[in-house]
Specification:
A seven-stranded mixed sheet has the order 1-9-8-5-4-2-3, sandwiched between helices. Strands 7-6-10 form a three-stranded antiparallel sheet, with no helix packed on it. By secondary structure, the protein is α/β, with parallel strands linked by helices. A hairpin with a 2-residue loop joins strand 6 and strand 7. 39% of the residues lie in helices and 13% in strands. The chain is globular, with a radius of gyration of 21 Å. The protein has two domains: 248 residues, Type I PLP-dependent aspartate aminotransferase-like (Major domain) (Aspartate Aminotransferase, domain 2); 126 residues, Aspartate Aminotransferase, domain 1. The protein binds pyridoxal-5'-phosphate (PLP). The site of pyridoxal-5'-phosphate has 15 residues, from helix 3 and helix 4.
């Protein structure tokens, strides 16, 4: 891609429109079309995309947002940053995404203010108002939006899709980012569609929300930049990043299919050790969906087993990573919510056992075979 990327960068250096240059709008149009929504709003990071989405719904102090504790800190951080309260809902052990049965339980417990029904966060002096849900499409696999959207509708809640990892994945034949009121993705270099720094995007079919997001992105601007209608942020997508993404997007669909082929090969090479003692659990994708395989994450039997395999791989120079070693309700940053160990057993169990193997579109079959061999001996 070097020549195309370099040429696109040079174009920006020549026209010099570093802030909101033409590449930003061009990329937004391309990606909106890909996702199948009417509006795409580029922004400075995936975190800003989530923050802007919550701000577009006027989320603030006294509001409660349902999300999962098995995610990157940013998902719940932005809720707290606005003074609202995350209400955690445990994940499904197979998909690692929000469990919609538990979501209903949490909503019921919340309305009844009854912790015996489901673990709840500390409430402040006055009761919280439930406002929305942020499902996370973990490791590139979209959450179950038909179920989540139905629950949201029945309870008058909005849905913000944390698609930071799932851009390029599919839910029931439609590309990820278009399943909720607002879909948010990230172009952090390690994500499936990565840029050369920070970047992100919001997607929506809602005209009003799109207008609000555009305003929030530039300090809450009204008709011009010195007319300020609301409190916003400096959340613009850098023109250089948009230019790089435009080039990389040309081969993105090919890369998505290469990622899927790599995942299939892992599953094939690793399947013998799923029957061994101790076994390894491989990821599975519901048949109607498609993962973009931001990560290929497997489960060891316990923490020691995981360490043993990770060490065996490390000895051969094969890197692995743990997403995520500590669920958010166990993080010091969220201690004030008052959650206890054991509140979200699936998330806690996965944190102890999960680890991710190398994953990118250019993984070679022979390297994956070698990884599987090392894991089989480890
Ligand atoms: C990466 C990520 C984010 C944040 O994106 P940034 O671009 O790094 O700000 C949010 N949520 C999830 C699930 C992520 O993986």
């Amino acid at each position: 891609m070097k020549s195309t990327i370099d040429a696109n960068i040079q174009t920006v250096l020549s026209h010099g429109k570093y802030i909101m240059g033409p590449e930003v709008g061009e990329l937004e149009a391309k990606l909106a079309d890909f996702v199948g929504v009417t509006h795409a709003i580029g922004c400075a990071s995936g975190t800003d995309a989530l923050l802007m989405a919550l701000m577009a719904f006027n989320v603030g102090s006294g509001d409660a947002i349902f999300t999962t504790p098995f995610t990157f800190i940013a998902t719940a951080e932005v809720i707290r940053l606005l003074g609202a309260t995350p209400v955690f809902v445990d994940i499904d052990p197979v998909t690692f995404n929000m469990d919609s049965v538990k979501l209903e339980k949490a909503i019921r417990a919340f309305h009844a203010d009854d912790r015996s029904l489901y673990p709840l966060p500390n409430q402040g002096a006055s009761p919280l108002t439930p406002r929305g849900i942020i499902p996370v499409d973990l490791f590139g696999l979209p959450s179950d939006y038909d179920q989540i959207n139905a629950i949201a509708k029945a309870n008058d809640l909005f849905v913000i899709q944390d698609a930071a990892q799932s851009f390029g994945g599919q839910y029931k034949g439609r590309n990820a980012c278009g399943q909720a009121d607002i879909g948010c993705t990230s172009f952090f270099p390690a994500k499936p569609l990565g840029c050369y720094g920070d970047g992100g995007m919001c997607f929506t079919d809602n005209e009003e929300l799109a207008k609000t997001l555009l305003s929030i992105r530039v300090h809450g601007k009204g008709t011009h930049k010195y007319d300020n209608m609301r409190i916003g942020i400096n959340g613009r997508l850098d023109t250089l990043q948009a230019a790089i993404l435009k080039a990389k997007f040309d081969i993105f669909q090919e890369e998505v299919s290469q990622r899927n082929q790599a995942a299939q090969r892992y599953t094939e090479f690793l399947s013998p050790i799923t029957h061994r003692t101790p076994p390894i659990n491989l990821p599975t994708v519901p048949s109607e969906n498609k993962s973009v395989w931001a990560q290929y994450s497997v489960l060891a039997t316990d923490e020691n087993h995981r360490t043993q395999i990770q060490n065996a791989l490390k000895e051969k120079g094969i890197p692995t990573a743990i997403y995520y070693p500590k669920p958010l309700h166990r993080q010091t940053a969220f201690a004030s919510l008052g959650y206890q160990p054991g509140d979200f057993p699936i998330s806690e169990d996965c944190s102890d056992r999960i680890f991710s193997l190398p994953m990118h579109p250019y993984l070679r079959s022979e390297d994956q075979e070698m990884i599987a061999r090392v894991m089989g001996n480890g």
